[in-house]
Design brief:
The structure holds two protein chains of two kinds.
Chain A: H1 11-22, E1 38-42, E2 51-57, E3 60-71, E4 82-88, H2 104-119, E5 129-131, E6 135-147, H3 152-166, E7 168-175, E8 178-187, E9 195-202, E10 205-208, H4 212-217, E11 220-226, E12 232-238, H5 246-271
Chain B: E1 29-33, E2 41-47, E3 50-61, E4 74-81, H1 96-109, E5 121-131, H2 136-150, E6 161-167, E7 170-173, H3 177-182, E8 185-192, E9 197-207, H4 209-241, H5 250-273
Parallel strand pairs in B: 4-5
Antiparallel strand pairs in B: 1-2, 2-3, 3-5, 6-7, 6-8, 8-9
Helix pairs in contact in B: 1-2, 2-4, 4-5
């Protein structure tokens, strides 16, 4: 196989990958519905961040850190805290990532991962209130890519969820309009957990957890966030403009439903916390 | 300032929605093609209170050059919301939401275009949301594909789009702003009518697999209806522009109308076969 330091792929490599798929094989000899090895490690930034995790899927690796700050609630939701997930495609992770302000794909990554966490109502924002309308906890989960070999979204989703479950922060209260620590330590109130699962469409084939080489030849990908009730809480077709049929979407949904439970278990095992 | 109040219910006891629509009923849609003189192609859509204008420039020379594609034209869609289009004043700088939507709109439109006919060029699609009342990305796609056709960009077909979703447990088509904000989920989608393939698909909220598939089927049907409206709008624009539809051209005009009816009839055929 050629080198993949540029955003193009040779016709030979393209055809090689497609030929393999039509024989029922993948470039790294996985089954179509098989994830690469996944590892999740929590508490990797224990001294300075309130929660953290590194998630690795094959040679894709991302680090997530959570900071919990105290701030004012949004005027339209005075009795809710704030959660926000951001992601950066740092140039450290791949020759394909450039220095400078985030491009469309980085914005998409951040927004899709954020949607996975927010739409599933993973964090119970009502439980993040110190004084309604005045002070609430603001939970920021920031993701940095370390190594990129395809399927960043799923890796980011694993890392973000693991970091949120790993978070411990000091309880605060308002005394005479002053913030003081109560000395107790809190966990983030979690009421649901949605993992994201990405299926890549290459020609007529659907493969889960694409590696970079597969992403380069894919028509499009479909990312699905699946929560503890096996409900779909977010979806995104991206990764190319190729169209996808209803039948293929249904097939992709089945593939994702099958894997979601396993992914959630990995997060529970790594964090020792279950939802 | 237009303060918003959360409605008590989205689906009334009679099974009707806030604006009196049935669950599978679209808002009134008004298309107009060729609304801007300077653009190579343009179109306007009013879908309920949502109001959007799309303009197409190109194929033309691409700047900056490093974006050049050697085997096809670069499709550059820019979705922007006016500061006054939403209840609070939107910040004028492009938001991350606007940039993501620009990207998914590009992906939704590209499969319909023969961009390979114009290597190294750019086709610019500028979308301005004048008033936003839910479903703007889908309405934008509806208008943009008409603007592309108006600009004479070779296309396989127009691209209709609609948002489906769920409110108070009922699956609904073409979400309004309140249904988007307070409903249980939103699934914007766009299709290629000729194959029924999906070119835009996003989702938020909470759905079971069965609900999602049913909602998408409702969306598919709504898209086919919108596609008919788009074709009518396009033909209307060119009837208006047809030269000398005057005294002795009167027969000619009737011919056009005949065409219109036959065409619409034919496109309904495949649906009947299903």
């Amino acid at each position: 196989m050629g080198d993949f330091s540029a955003e193009t792929i040779s016709h030979i490599d393209r055809k090689y990958i497609q030929d393999l798929l039509s024989k029922g094989e993948r470039v790294d000899s996985r089954a179509f519905d098989e994830y690469r090895d996944i590892e999740i490690e929590v508490g990797v930034v224990a001294a300075k961040s309130e929660g953290s995790a590194i998630a690795r899927i094959g040679d894709t690796r991302v680090i997530a850190g959570v900071k919990v700050l105290v701030g004012e609630p949004y005027p339209d939701t005075p009795d809710e805290g704030v959660t926000m997930v951001t992601a950066e495609m740092a140039p450290i992770a791949s020759p394909l990532f450039e220095v400078g302000p985030p491009k469309e794909d980085a914005i998409e990554l951040a927004r899709v991962v954020d949607r996975g966490v927010r739409e599933s109502e993973t964090v119970d924002v009502k439980g993040l209130v110190i004084e309604p309308g005045k002070k609430v906890y603001m939970v920021f989960c920031d993701l940095y890519t370390l190594e990129y070999d395809g399927n960043l979204i799923d890796a980011c989703s694993l890392a973000a969820n693991a970091a949120l479950l790993n978070t411990r922060f000091p309880e605060m209260k308002l005394e005479d309009e002053e913030l003081v620590q109560t000395g107790r330590e809190l966990e983030i109130p979690i009421k649901n957990l949605a993992v994201e699962c990405t299926v890549s469409k290459i020609g007529e084939h659907l493969v889960i957890d694409p590696v970079l080489k597969e992403e380069m030849v894919q028509d499009c990908r479909l990312t699905m966030a699946i929560d503890t009730n096996n409900h779909f809480t977010a979806m995104q077709k991206g990764g190319g403009s190729g169209p996808i049929s209803m039948a293929q979407i249904e097939h992709a949904m089945d593939m994702a439903l099958e894997k979601a439970e396993d992914l959630r278990k990995l997060i529970y095992e790594a964090t020792g916390r279950k939802v | 300032m237009s303060p918003e109040v959360k409605p008590d219910y989205l689906i009334s006891p009679e099974g009707l929605r806030l604006d009196g629509r049935r669950p599978d009923e679209l808002r009134p849609i008004e298309f107009e093609v060729g609304v801007l003189k300077t653009a190579d192609g343009s179109a306007m859509i009013k879908q309920g209170k949502t109001h959007i204008i799309a303009a197409v420039y190109g194929p033309r020379e691409l700047h900056p050059r490093h974006l050049t594609l050697n085997d096809k034209a670069y499709l550059r869609c820019v979705y922007r919301m006016a500061t006054f289009s939403v209840p609070d004043r939107k910040r004028p700088a492009p938001s991350r939401r606007e940039r993501e939507i620009s990207m998914v709109i590009t992906n939704a439109l590209e499969p319909a275009l023969f961009l390979e006919d114009f290597p190294r060029a750019v086709v610019d699609v500028f979308i301005q949301v004048i008033q936003a009342d839910g479903g703007t990305r889908c309405a934008a796609i509806n208008a943009a594909s008409l603007a592309l056709a108006d600009a004479g960009i070779p296309m396989r077909s127009l691209v209709p789009a609609v948002a489906v979703g769920k409110a108070d447990g009922t699956l609904i088509v073409d979400l309004g702003d309140m249904e988007d904000k307070y409903g249980e989920g939103d699934v914007p989608m766009a299709i290629l009518p000729s194959t029924g393939e999906i070119t835009l698909l996003q989702q938020d909220g909470s759905f079971t697999k069965e609900e999602l598939l049913e909602a998408m089927q409702m969306g598919l049907n709504a898209c086919k209806y919108i596609h008919e409206l788009q074709k009518e709008a396009l033909k209307r624009a060119y009837l208006k522009r047809a030269p000398e539809a005057g005294s002795e051209g009167e027969d000619e005009e009737e011919d056009y109308e005949d065409d219109l009816e036959t065409d619409l009839g034919e496109s309904e055929l495949p649906e009947e076969e299903e």
